[in-house]
TrEMBL record:
Family in the record: Belongs to the XPC family.
Biological process according to GO: mismatch repair; nucleotide-excision repair
Keywords for the protein's UniProt record, in alphabetical order: DNA damage, DNA repair, Nucleus
UniProt protein name: Rad4-domain-containing protein
UniProt organism field: Hyphopichia burtonii NRRL Y-1933
Residue stretches of biased makeup (Acidic residues): 48-66
């Protein structure tokens, strides 16, 4: 049996009843919930026997009083003493201002939830679009699909033009100087485009995501349903046999035709992500009669198209679209894949086209293009957005700005591309193409002409639009100049990868880094934008302002280069040989990363470890198998919400000497066994107490029924 002190220190009894008022009505609260310090289990059994004996005799009549019952007349209660009327006053506890504040908070919470919902839908759509296109790309690379498509092509074409081109493709060294092979290749591609447009029938709608689904809206009334669903390769081959479906499937079938003829053709998909702003468009209701006539012809830009690598010049690609564009010159565009070794200056006209990016005008109802993903013959995934979209330099910075929504989406896309290509071996041409795309992104940008648009621009920055914790690298080279302030002064423009972000010493400590000792006196910036969050620091802040010492409130900011891995605190040994663990003035140690654990120490993260060791230290006793050991509670963070104006430390485990790790775990196990036994003891005591209350209530009811019948 454990002592009452152990019960108090190691276990807090949970009351199963809602409040003390449940027992105050019977006057039995002190007897029903006895304190463990005042009554033990044996005394409880004895008191239960004594009380049952006294109440069974019925000798104590003084505890009961007669209750006057209203007189009864003609079977009805006499109501003469009742008041004639009464008033009920309902007071308005909340003032009008409090109601407005509550309504504003509720509205803000609703807006935040709606924003989170739109962002989640956007992230999920990125994943679904890429997976959908990758599955289709795998189908159009199958041999069975190629065999069916070859059988559909005209025999005259296969035996004449294609046969001649195939010979030139097998022996590229025999290519004539005057470009006959190039002319023949262009002729074959244009012939296939015209043949495909004439034979492939559009009989249903494809992707048509123009906005978010309204709340409580039926998807069937807003999004078209496919008449012929494609769920497997067998279904896709059935569509090839019929040679009719929507225009998205048509672009995939045309890519499969080029692959069946031996060309290296990549399937391209435009990710047109919906904006997550509050003013984002909603999906319009379907006009089924109109859609049955135009079959997505009101969508002016394609979701899918094809990139064909020139077999005679791998520096060049043909961008092919067969259904959406009506101008013949837009269906076949020639671009440079990457420049030759001799050329050093890159020309945007040869490497970039804006024909596939939707224009924001009254004729276009499609959302803007966000990304263009390419899928190769071996199902590798590439991000080729710079070839079709401008103003995306930020995606090729060494560090993405995850504070912005565009930066987080870019990180998601890059992570998905790396995940899908984890088994893909990149070639030298792939690396040259990636370098070219990066160079295009850094050349193809626009300069805002207003202060607000410059501040929102993710690519470039001026000194006047820097944030409170940002400075420009002194080695950065400007890329231009612009006048966006009221003074009309020209300011140099820099890419945002020239920004250096500073953090305070405490912020770097949260990240597991320390300021270099020789850099403490050389911060990159001093700021007063970081307001204190605790009451004590606010008092100091206000006192400095009243005493005209505002410079004391400024916070020093340091860059990453001015930091080093966290400088660990050390274990001290006194002259007498006593070992002392490191701790702060509050008796704790702050550890936010595992690398901050002091040398020769071990972080014990087991539950209730601090409570168990505190009990043994408080009672100056240890288990018989353990010797005295020092410990320090570990603070892993702070809670500013549970107690406003205070930083409540969040603790997780303790640190001990590494030599005492096994011994400390034994002490912890011994303490957990004690806690478990106490829990069982108090549970049994609670059950007995409950039975006592139940039996006593039955006796009271029996006595009341007996005396007042």
């Amino acid at each position: 049996m454990f002592s009452d002190d152990i019960a108090t220190d190691l276990f807090v009894q949970n009351d199963e009843f809602e409040s003390e008022s449940d027992f105050e009505q019977t006057g039995q609260f002190d007897e029903v919930c006895p304190s463990p310090k005042r009554q033990k289990v044996n005394d409880f059994f004895a008191s239960l026997d004594d009380e049952s004996t006294e109440e069974s005799d019925g000798s104590d009549e003084s505890d009961w009083e007669d209750i006057p019952i209203p007189s009864v007349s003609n079977g009805l209660i006499d109501e003469t003493a009742a008041p004639e009327s009464f008033n009920i006053v309902i007071s308005n506890e909340d003032s009008d201002e409090a109601k407005k504040q509550r309504q504003r908070r509720e509205k803000l919470q609703t807006l935040i939830k709606e924003k989170q919902k739109r962002v989640s839908i956007q992230y999920l759509s990125v994943l679904c679009y890429i997976i959908h296109a990758r599955i289709r790309n795998g189908w159009i690379s199958s041999r069975l699909c190629h065999k069916k498509l070859k059988g559909l092509l005209p025999e005259s074409f296969m035996k004449s033009n294609y046969k001649s081109l195939k010979k030139l493709m097998k022996n590229p060294t025999n290519n004539t100087v005057n470009g006959e092979s190039d002319k023949l290749l262009v002729y074959v591609i244009k012939y296939l485009i015209k043949w495909f447009r004439f034979n492939f029938k559009i009989d249903q709608n494809g992707l048509r995501v123009l906005g978010f689904l309204p709340s409580q809206g039926d998807p069937t009334t807003y999004f078209p349903t496919a008449n012929t669903k494609i769920g497997s390769l067998h279904d896709f081959i059935s569509v090839i046999k019929k040679f009719k479906h929507n225009r998205d499937t048509g672009a995939q079938v045309f890519t499969a035709i080029l692959r069946s003829l031996g060309f290296e053709a990549n399937l391209c998909m435009s990710l047109m992500l919906l904006p997550t702003l509050r003013s984002a468009n909603l999906q319009p209701k379907l006009d089924k009669e109109k859609l049955s006539r135009n079959k997505d012809n009101d969508l002016l830009y394609p979701y899918f198209w094809t990139e064909l690598i020139n077999p005679f010049d791998r520096l060049e690609i043909f961008v092919v679209e067969t259904i959406c564009f009506h101008n013949e010159q837009d269906r076949l565009i020639r671009l440079k894949r990457f420049p030759s070794n001799q050329r050093k200056i890159l020309s945007l006209n040869e490497h970039f086209t804006e024909r596939y990016a939707p224009n924001l005008d009254r004729f276009n109802i499609m959302p803007p293009m966000s990304y263009v993903i390419s899928f190769t013959n071996n199902n590798a995934v590439k991000d080729i957005t710079p070839r079709y979209k401008s103003d995306i330099s930020y995606r090729y910075f060494g560090r993405l700005d995850l504070r912005t929504e565009s930066g987080r989406v870019a990180l998601l896309v890059q992570s998905l591309v790396r995940s899908f290509n984890k088994h893909h071996n990149y070639t030298f041409e792939d690396y040259k193409e990636f370098d070219t795309l990066r160079e295009i992104a850094f050349l193809n940008y626009s300069i805002p002409l207003t202060f607000s648009s410059m501040k929102k621009n993710p690519n470039i920055v001026t000194e006047s639009t820097l944030r409170y914790n940002e400075v420009l690298d002194h080695n950065a080279k400007p890329i231009g100049s612009v006048s966006i302030t009221k003074t009309k002064r020209l300011e140099p423009i820099y890419f945002k990868n020239a920004i250096i972000i500073g953090k305070s010493e405490q912020q770097w400590k949260f990240l597991g880094r320390s300021i270099k000792p020789d850099q403490i006196e050389f911060p990159i910036k001093m700021t007063d934008a970081l307001q204190p969050r605790t009451i004590f620091k606010r008092k100091v802040f206000n006192s400095n302002m009243l005493n005209n010492q505002s410079e004391l409130n400024r916070t020093k900011l340091y860059s990453f280069d001015q930091t080093c891995p966290y400088i660990k605190e050390k274990v001290s040994v006194s002259e007498t040989g006593e070992v002392s663990l490191p701790r702060n003035k509050y008796g704790n140690i702050e550890i936010f990363k595992d690398l901050m654990i002091p040398d020769d120490c071990y972080w014990l993260k087991l539950s209730d470890s601090e409570k168990i060791f505190r009990y043994f230290k408080k009672n100056k006793s240890n288990p018989p198998f353990a010797e005295a050991m020092d410990y320090v509670p570990v603070v892993v963070g702070f809670d500013f919400r549970s107690k406003l104006g205070n930083a409540v430390p969040i603790k997780d485990g303790i640190i001990i000497l590494k030599l005492q790790e096994i011994q400390a775990k034994k002490v912890w196990l011994h303490g957990k066994i004690m806690i478990h036994k106490l829990e069982v003891q108090f549970k049994e005591l609670r059950l007995l107490t409950t039975w006592k209350f139940f039996l006593k209530s039955l006796r009271i009811k029996e006595r009341v029924d007996k005396d007042y019948k």
